[in-house]
Predict the 3D structure of the following.
Amino acid sequence: MTAEAACYRLSGGGNDFLALVEPSVPPTAQRVRSWCRRGLSLGADGLFTLERAPSGVKMDYYNADGRAADLCLNGTRCAVRLAGHLGWHEGSTTVLTGAGAMAGTVEGSAVRLELEPPSEEPLALTLNVEGGAHSGWFLTVGVPQFVLAWPESLRTAPVDRLGPLIRHHPEFGDAGTNVMFVRFLPPSRFEIRSYERGVEAETLACGTGVLAAAAVALDQRLLELPLVALTAGGCEFQVDGVTDGLGRLTRWSLAGDARLLAKIEPAADADRLPSPPEWT
C-alpha cells in the first residue's frame, strides 16, 4: 500500500468503516485486522476499497478479521456517499460488489440501495443451544443470516451470550452465520440487534440483516411493506419493494443514514499491535 491512497472514516447507520480510495495494491489481511482493532488502532467494523469503474464504482469489502466478504450493505451505502463526495457521481451511481451490481442514490442524509430480492425462501430451523431450543429462519442476503424472533424487549436479549453460540453452530458449517435478534411489531415495524461474524461482536446495525429480517417478515406475513427497522445505533432503516400478483418481491430497496465522518491519515503506529497476553 502506498501513501497516496486517501483514507476516510464513514458510518452507515452505526456500522463504521474505513475506506481506501483507489489504493495501488489491496490492503493485506494483517493491515485490515490492525486498523480495525478498537482501542489500539483506528477501530472499525470493516474496511472497503473504492475505485472508479466504467459503469459506476467498484468496492471490495473486508471484515474486521481481515477476510474478504461478498457484501456489506451498509458499507455499500457508505461507498455511494463517499463516491458522491469525491465528485464521481451527481446523486446516483451503480456499485459493483462481490454479490453483484446495485444502484445507489443519495437522498439528503440517507443513501438508498436498489437490489434484487433473495432467490431463496427463508428456511425454518430450530437450534439446540445450551440445552434450549431456539427457532428462527436461515437465508442468505449477500452473506448468511439467521433471524431469531424475539418476543420480548430487545433490551434484555442475550446478544453477547447467545449470538456467538448460534454464529458458530454446526448447522451453519465452517462459514457460520450472522445472527439477528428481531422483535416484529405489526403492521410495518420491527426492532433488531445484530451479532456479526467477522466482527465477532454486536454491531450497531447490519444492512443485510435488516433485509433478511424483512424477508422473513414478508414470507411469514408478519408485516407489510413499507417497513421501518430500528437498530441498536438508534437509526431507522426503511425497506420498500415491488411485488408481483402473488405477493412475491421482484425488487426491493434499503435506505438509511450514511455519513462521512472524516478524512484521516493513518500513522505507522496504526499497524503495530501487541501480541495477545498469555495470562498466568
The two ends are 38 Å apart (CA to CA).
